[in-house]
Automatic annotation (TrEMBL):
<keyword id="KW-0812">Transmembrane</keyword>
<feature type="transmembrane region" description="Helical">
    <location>
        <begin position="37"/>
        <end position="57"/>
    </location>
</feature>
<feature type="transmembrane region" description="Helical">
    <location>
        <begin position="113"/>
        <end position="132"/>
    </location>
</feature>
<feature type="transmembrane region" description="Helical">
    <location>
        <begin position="63"/>
        <end position="82"/>
    </location>
</feature>
<protein>
    <submittedName>
        <fullName>HD domain-containing protein</fullName>
    </submittedName>
</protein>
<feature type="transmembrane region" description="Helical">
    <location>
        <begin position="89"/>
        <end position="107"/>
    </location>
</feature>
<feature type="transmembrane region" description="Helical">
    <location>
        <begin position="181"/>
        <end position="207"/>
    </location>
</feature>
<dbReference type="InterPro" id="IPR006674">
    <property type="entry name" value="HD_domain"/>
</dbReference>
<dbReference type="Pfam" id="PF01966">
    <property type="entry name" value="HD"/>
</dbReference>
<keyword id="KW-0472">Membrane</keyword>
<keyword id="KW-1133">Transmembrane helix</keyword>
<feature type="transmembrane region" description="Helical">
    <location>
        <begin position="219"/>
        <end position="238"/>
    </location>
</feature>
<dbReference type="InterPro" id="IPR003607">
    <property type="entry name" value="HD/PDEase_dom"/>
</dbReference>
<dbReference type="InterPro" id="IPR052020">
    <property type="entry name" value="Cyclic_di-GMP/3'3'-cGAMP_PDE"/>
</dbReference>
<feature type="transmembrane region" description="Helical">
    <location>
        <begin position="144"/>
        <end position="161"/>
    </location>
</feature>
<feature type="domain" description="HD-GYP">
    <location>
        <begin position="266"/>
        <end position="447"/>
    </location>
</feature>
<dbReference type="InterPro" id="IPR037522">
    <property type="entry name" value="HD_GYP_dom"/>
</dbReference>
Length: 447
């Protein structure tokens, strides 16, 4: 990656020392862990209350519960990573939603309520995590909490009204009206799940809730809509054909999941290839160890702070990983990897050479354009702004300069010193809003 100078003339700035530890791997927003705890406590409270209810009033229709619980557990075992690096279990989510919205089964009324739906869903989700725990990996508590709470919302909107005959009295238990009501219940549950996902994702990534909510809403329009539709269809079809609805009407969702999984696998392979290529500069001694990953992580967090969408963040990630590849054209490595000693003409030459390498890797052409423009300052010599430079290039430029200056001392005092130096350069070299976004990200770093 291009260092402070390759990002553009950071005059008088001191590059970091080799072997410095990552500066932001453990970054967290101080108040967000409390939100995560609140979600967990809510889920645990709902499960405990549901268990107590069943202990008093009893468990009904165990074979139906076993069938749906098994279906949900199998779906959890088939969890996959979908676009956007989201680990989801579409089949398990659809099965849990169908059980929450289940009224009649093969023409016979069911009598399970909200408490039983919550307990069965929780048990199935826990069973689905067993192989992961056996392999020594961390349990997905976020997913369990989301599943319990969102399914609880769906069950709360349907089961009490169904079991008490309210839907029957208002003509909502049969025909198109029933389908419409189930769709509304499923939609509300999906929105609740989207909000929980945004809350938890924002806590883990440091992104603002509104930005995380926007990303999750995009995900809902993709696989989420298929989950909602499948859950509703299974619940309706089970009223006529019984438990056969589970395998029959899950096939379309399985095909959709397979398509998403294939796409995610292709993208993961592409990223691994890019990351391996980016390490070439470190192996050859042109850049500091871990520099590529640190700058990439920081750039992506700044990108989220500036409300970049998922597609823009992907291009930003690729550019941050590969933006130093042009240094391989140098005969001798620059001390510390910093190119501040080079002229802007040489910096641009390095960027162009790196861009040509990237164009031959199959990476989206936008990435090559970002790398080619990294040496361009925020303002021209006449004081006008160069509006043709991609925002991603400006973000990588700032993130790269920060890591060069702060990687040897990631403490709060050094951060403030580096940010002050970067602010001094906003008159020409760095875009002010990018530097301020970086400052907000730095404020959320642990001391």
């Amino acid at each position: 990656m291009q260092q402070a100078g390759s990002a553009g003339g950071t005059s008088g700035l001191r590059p970091g020392a080799a072997g410095a530890p990552p500066t932001i791997d453990a970054a967290r927003v101080g108040r967000l862990p409390r939100r995560i705890v609140a979600v967990y406590v809510s889920a645990v409270g709902l499960v405990v209350a549901s268990g107590a209810w069943l202990a008093v009033y009893g468990f009904v229709e165990p074979w139906i519960a076993l069938a749906f619980g098994t279906f949900v557990a199998v779906g959890e075992l088939m969890r996959t990573t979908l676009p956007g690096d989201r680990a989801q279990a579409p089949l398990g989510a659809a099965g849990a939603l169908a059980y929450a919205l289940l009224g009649a089964l093969a023409g016979e009324r069911t009598h399970h309520g909200v408490a039983q739906v919550v307990v069965v869903t929780t048990g199935a989700a826990m069973v689905g995590m067993v192989p992961r725990v056996v392999r020594g990996r961390q349990p997905r508590w976020d997913s369990v909490a989301r599943r319990v709470l969102s399914v609880g919302v769906a069950a709360l909107l349907f089961q009490p009204f169904y079991n008490r005959g309210v839907l029957l009295r208002h003509g909502l238990e049969h025909g198109p009206a029933n389908g419409a009501y189930l769709a509304v219940c499923a939609g509300v549950a999906a929105l609740a799940d989207m909000g929980l996902a945004a809350l938890l994702a924002g806590a883990h990534s440091g992104a603002r809730f509104t930005h995380a909510l926007r990303d999750e809403s995009c995900a809902l329009l993709r696989i989420g809509s298929a989950i909602v539709a499948t859950g509703v269809v299974i619940a309706i079809a089970a009223g006529e054909i019984g438990l056969w609805a589970l395998p029959l009407f899950s096939v379309p969702l399985l095909l959709t999941q397979a398509g998403f999984r294939r796409y995610a696998a292709i993208r993961a392979t592409q990223r691994q290839t890019i990351a391996s290529l980016a390490r070439a500069t470190e192996v050859a001694g042109y850049t500091l160890p871990g520099h590529a990953q640190r700058v990439t992580l920081l750039a992506c967090r700044v990108g989220r702070e500036l409300a970049l969408n998922e597609g823009e963040l992907l291009l930003l990630e690729y550019a941050a990983l590969m933006h130093d590849i042009g240094q391989l054209s140098l005969v001798d490595p620059i001390p510390g990897g910093a190119t501040a000693l080079l002229s802007r003409t040489e910096q641009r030459r390095i960027g162009q050479l790196g861009s040509e390498v990237i164009r031959r890797t199959g990476v989206p052409p936008e990435v090559a354009e970002i790398v080619a423009r990294l040496a361009e300052p925020y303002r021209r010599p006449d004081g006008s702004r160069d509006g043709d430079v991609p925002l991603a290039a400006r973000i990588v430029r700032v993130a790269n300069a920060y890591d060069d200056l702060a990687c040897d001392d990631p403490g709060p005092a050094r951060r403030e010193e580096v940010l002050a130096q970067l602010r001094e350069e906003t008159a020409q070299e760095y875009e002010p809003r990018v530097v301020e976004a970086l400052a907000r990200v730095c404020q959320r770093m642990p001391g």
